[in-house]
Write a structure and sequence with these properties.
This protein is an alpha/beta fold and 230 residues long. It folds into 2 domains: 136 residues, Rossmann fold, CATH 3.40.50; 67 residues, ACT domain (Alpha-Beta Plaits, 2-Layer Sandwich), CATH 3.30.70.260. Helix 1 packs across helix 2. The chain is globular. It binds ribulose-5-phosphate.
């Protein structure tokens, strides 16, 4: 990754961790932007912050452990105060495409239990309309060929995500189908159509979930905090 892209991500992450307070239960996102937030929270813990957290992937869980951030199971909590996570695309209505890292199902479970959901991006992820980034759809391996045909019938071209010469498997042992729809005119409607398909475990649309979006510029300067549109 170019240094400038890392810079925008890190700037956004550093702004987001300013929202973290003592005693909070946190959701830890997944990906190269969330990485910086987890590291930042780890530094705060080292300096005496008391929090507990749930991670959205095995990868983020491992990083949290390395940073000595206490992890809790869902049996011990009924909500998360704040979750900080990245996104692949954000439109002006705060519709998101997520799942580039393949963690969308866990990310959405955590987001759905979160009171204040903070999305951190480098500002190149802010788009007028979603769709340049293919929509990741997590599907059951059983009968995936049928699920693929049903998704294709919605008007996309589709590729099963691979890891080398084997299908990529999510932390939940599912496949990811990356669906290119082109420009998406109505994300909430397409989200409903995709999630209605049997065999779809979760799709990468995060609709009406983000409370704020924090965007960092690759060229430096302060992060922009965008409030949820009314
Ligand atoms: C993982 C995600 C990530 O948040 C998204 O792909 C953005 O990743 P990055 O911060 O590496 O650009 O949804 O499933």
């Amino acid at each position: 990754m170019e240094n400038s892209a890392i810079n925008g991500k890190k700037i956004a992450a550093n702004k987001a961790i300013e929202y973290v307070r003592n005693g909070m239960t946190l959701g830890l996102g997944t990906g190269s932007t969330a990485y910086w937030a987890i590291r930042g929270i780890g530094d705060m813990v080292k300096n005496g912050l008391s929090v507990r957290a749930i991670a959205t992937s095995i990868q983020s869980e491992e990083l949290a452990r390395e940073m000595n951030i206490p992890l809790v199971p869902f049996t011990e909590i009924d909500h998360l105060d704040i979750t900080i996570d990245g996104a692949d695309e954000v439109d002006p209505a705060f519709n998101l495409i997520k799942g580039g890292g393949g963690a969308l199902l866990r990310e959405k479970i955590v987001a759905s239990a979160t009171r204040f959901y903070i999305i951190i991006v480098d500002e190149t992820k802010l788009v007028k309309q979603l769709g340049r980034f293919p929509l990741p759809v997590e599907v059951a391996p059983f009968g995936w060929e049928l699920t693929e045909r049903r998704l294709t019938a919605l008007g996309c071209t589709l590729a099963r995500r691979m890891a080398g010469d084997k299908p990529f498997l999510t932390d939940n042992q599912h496949y990811i189908l990356d669906c290119s729809f082109g420009t998406i005119a109505d994300p909430p409607q397409l989200h409903r159509q995709v999630s209605d398909i049997t065999g779809v475990m979760e799709d990468g649309f995060f609709i009406n979930m983000a409370n704020i979006v924090i965007a960092g510029s690759p060229s430096g300067g302060d992060a922009r905090v965008l409030a949820k549109p009314q």
